[in-house]
Design brief:
Layout lengths: L28 E2 L5 E6 L5 E7 L3 E9 L4 E6 L5 E6 L5 E9 L3 E9 L5 E12 L4 H8 L11 E7 L2 E8 L1 E3 L4 E2 L6 E2 L5 H13 L25 H5 L8 H6 L10 H10 L15 H15 L3 H13 L5 E2 L15 E3 L2 E3 L13 E3 L1 H12 L6 H7 L18 E5 L2 E9 L4 E7 L4 E7 L6 H13 L34 E5 L2 E11 L2 E6 L5 E5 L4 E4 L4 E8 L2 E9 L2 E8 L18 E5 L4 E8 L9 E6 L3 E7 L5 E4 L4 E7 L5 E8 L2 E10 L1
Parallel strand pairs: 1-3
Antiparallel strand pairs: 2-9, 3-8, 4-7, 4-9, 5-6, 5-8, 10-11, 10-22, 12-13, 14-18, 15-18, 16-17, 19-20, 20-21, 21-22, 23-24, 23-30, 24-25, 25-26, 26-27, 27-28, 28-29, 29-30, 31-32, 31-38, 32-33, 33-34, 34-35, 35-36, 36-37, 37-38
Helix pairs in contact: 1-10, 2-6
């Protein structure tokens, strides 16, 4: 088979399902704000707690998992499930939060995960109307990050050269109880990419490179692929190179241990491109790492020195640093935290992030940076315009991305933005160039949803520059006035049918309505309930994913799946076009030891039987550091997924029918070859 676009199953398409246990506790117990309710769960139990909310309320609470891992869900008075299921760490605090649009009686359901049993405590800490005052709304949204002894964050808002709002919350360092400040340098993750793009443009402005240069002109040790990769391809995520974090994860090693020089090593070992440059958008950290290397080679300076001398210092960004190595000390920085069974943990930063990430900056410094982009003193207006202009693929398709910035609109107002997520830090910076305004939010907690908070605050602070809220608009940004309870469920009938995922046509999403309840099911996955978030966009209730339908001249022609940062388009098909799954047959065909020369890693495929005499044998992928990962057949012949990790493996046979190799896909990295070395 030629280069395997068919096998791009997005993240394994392994959508989880959370069901209520069949045995329920007694009648719901009422719970109010700051009341602590306790209980004990046995297998099959569900404890229920009811409360009353008004229109457009915000809810936040926590379950203390004393002796049991719980799953928390929320239903309305009619028993309809709202939002996702909350299922985080196995012990300690399980936080739950959501926006409640319509007033009424709501019920929190607390059930044990699988067969666990034990004690818990639950408490609602915030239940109040969403404020119309932008500053009060900021405090509400940051409430979880102003908790005693917990990680925090900061917000900075500006317009027309003036600071509109600036506030910090919580702690930057839990060990020493150091407060977060608006001058605290924080890891901004991929928000750093715009600085890398700007650094490249500075070099282009001086004539030291061109965006249309072959990258091998500057990094000649890279392989000579069939197609030329330009610097522009790097900055627009269209290069066809492997994404190094996804690729490195296939070795079983921790991504925090990766060194910067390994990124170049990985790129040098890539045998072929994943796609022709300029034909496909695939968010790519490898590309931005190489862009930083090109800046170094054309300037003769280390990347951190270049950015400091040419950007940070001239703009007065005194708190900002490029962290070239996760072991380098950043004075006064915010440490990053993730929830764990025994409380907050500090897992450190990603390795090898320079160029793709690696910048520590304060929210005050990011305002200085933003105002320079909107009215350049460093650089030129042309550079800023290039960064904010959408790149178009060779087939004329827009990418929604410029050079280091996403490009879109919010209620008719141009919006340019980029978020960042390192291991535990989260950030987002948003520009509204038409009104010379912007904002940035950041936190040192992995639970922080930076995009949601930033876009809500954008609507709150700059709504006067946007089009009026339209209850019928398709825009699903938080804050858009759409009432799902008032939406007529019969409108869903136009979407009923089957949709084949373009990257993997054998995977089909079906949609249908049963009375007032709406459902979807992907090939080989359980049936899941969906709820509308706009007239054409629907959210899965137990999985963090959404579908948006594509309507043209009154006809529904397709849909897009949004999950884990990916956007997967699906084309509507007739029901009789749905592929019939294959039968794996003799599983021993796939058993053996396989080796990838590209990443110098062995995988063992084993056949195991677990669960008693009547249990069916199954394939298991084993790797030294990854452990055992059960495999399940997909609709495409000789193709399996391995979980956890969402690996997709497609096996290939020789002309005698013997399995000789397989190719692995994982998220943004595809077609990594493993050859059989032992049967």
């Amino acid at each position: 088979m030629s280069y395997r676009l068919l096998r791009r199953l997005p993240l394994g398409l392994a959508l989880g399902l959370v069901l209520f246990p069949s045995a329920l506790a007694a009648q719901p117990v009422s719970i109010g704000v700051n009341q602590i309710r306790s209980g004990s769960l046995a297998s099959g139990d569900t404890a229920r707690f009811s409360f009353e909310a008004g229109d457009d309320f915000l809810l936040y609470g926590e379950v203390n998992q004393i002796g049991v891992d719980v799953v928390v869900t929320l239903t309305d008075a009619e028993g309809r499930r709202l939002g996702p299921a909350w299922d985080g760490p196995a012990r300690g605090s399980e936080a739950f939060s959501t926006a409640i649009r319509t007033g009424g009686i709501y019920t929190l359901h607390v059930a044990p995960f699988e067969q666990e049993e034990g004690d818990f405590e639950i408490q609602i800490l915030l239940l109040e109307a969403r404020s119309d005052d932008p500053e009060r709304l900021a405090d509400q949204l940051m409430f979880p990050y102003a908790r005693p002894g917990g990680p925090g964050g900061a917000i900075q808002v500006w317009r027309g050269g003036r600071t509109v709002f600036s506030r910090a919350y919580g702690l930057a360092d839990l060990t020493h109880a150091i407060p977060f400040r608006t001058t605290t340098p924080t890891n901004i993750g991929s928000t750093s990419k715009q600085f890398t793009a700007f650094a490249v443009l500075l070099q282009a402005e001086e004539g030291l490179l061109s965006l249309d240069d072959d990258i091998r002109d500057h990094v000649p040790e890279l392989p000579e692929f069939d197609e030329i990769i330009t610097i522009r391809h790097l900055l627009t995520h269209t290069s066809g190179l492997r994404e190094f974090l996804n690729l490195y994860s296939l070795t079983g090693a921790a991504t925090t241990a990766m060194q910067r020089q390994q990124v170049l090593t990985i790129a040098r070992r890539q045998p072929a491109l994943q796609n022709r440059p300029g034909t496909e958008w695939n968010y790519n950290n490898t590309a931005y790492s190489l862009a930083a290397t090109i800046v170094e080679r054309t300037s003769g300076e280390d990347f951190d020195d270049f950015v400091h001398d040419r950007i940070f210092e001239p703009l007065g960004m005194a708190s900002s640093r490029v962290r070239m190595d996760p072991r380098v000390v950043i004075p006064g920085r915010a440490d990053g935290y993730s929830p764990g069974a025994s409380g907050w943990t500090a897992p450190g930063d990603l390795g090898g992030a320079v160029g793709a990430g690696g910048i520590y900056a304060s929210v005050e410094d990011l305002q200085r940076w933003s105002e320079n982009l909107l009215d350049p003193e460093v650089g030129t207006p042309g550079m800023a315009e290039a960064m904010m202009t959408e790149y178009v693929l060779s087939d004329g398709t827009g990418t929604g991305y410029g050079l280091g910035l996403f490009t879109d609109e919010q209620r008719g107002l141009q919006r340019r933005h980029h978020g960042g997520a390192d291991v535990s830090h989260r950030s987002m910076i948003v520009y509204y160039p038409e009104i010379e305004a912007g904002l940035t939010v950041q936190s040192n907690a992995s639970t922080f949803n930076s995009g949601d908070v930033a876009f809500q605050l954008g609507a709150a602070f700059f709504g006067d520059g946007m089009e009026p809220e339209d209850p019928g608009a398709a825009d699903s940004d938080p804050g858009t006035a759409f009432d799902p309870d008032a939406w007529d469920r019969e409108n869903f009938d136009m979407f009923e049918g089957s949709y084949s995922l373009d990257p993997a046509p054998q995977v089909v999403a079906r949609f249908w309505r049963d009375g007032e309840t709406l459902y979807t099911q992907l090939t080989g996955q359980p049936v899941l309930e969906v709820e509308p978030v706009s007239p054409i966009r629907f959210r899965l209730l137990t999985v963090p994913a959404e579908f948006e339908f594509e309507v043209e001249d009154g006809e529904v022609i397709g849909a897009t799946l949004f999950q884990n940062g990916q956007e997967i388009h699906a084309t509507r098909i007739a029901d009789n076009e749905v592929a019939i799954p294959w039968t794996p047959g003799d599983l021993s065909d796939f058993v053996g030891r396989f080796y990838s020369e590209e990443i110098e890693t062995f995988y063992d495929i084993r056949l195991e039987t677990r669960g008693g005499e009547d249990a069916e044998p199954r394939l298991v992928l084993h790797q030294l550091w990854m452990g055992d990962r059960p495999m399940a057949a997909t609709p495409e012949e000789d193709t399996f997924t391995a979980l956890p990790g969402n690996l997709t493996l497609q096996f290939e046979r020789n002309r005698h029918g013997k399995v000789t190799e397989f190719y692995v896909d994982v998220a943004r990295t595809r077609d990594v070859r493993f050859v059989r070395v032992e049967s």
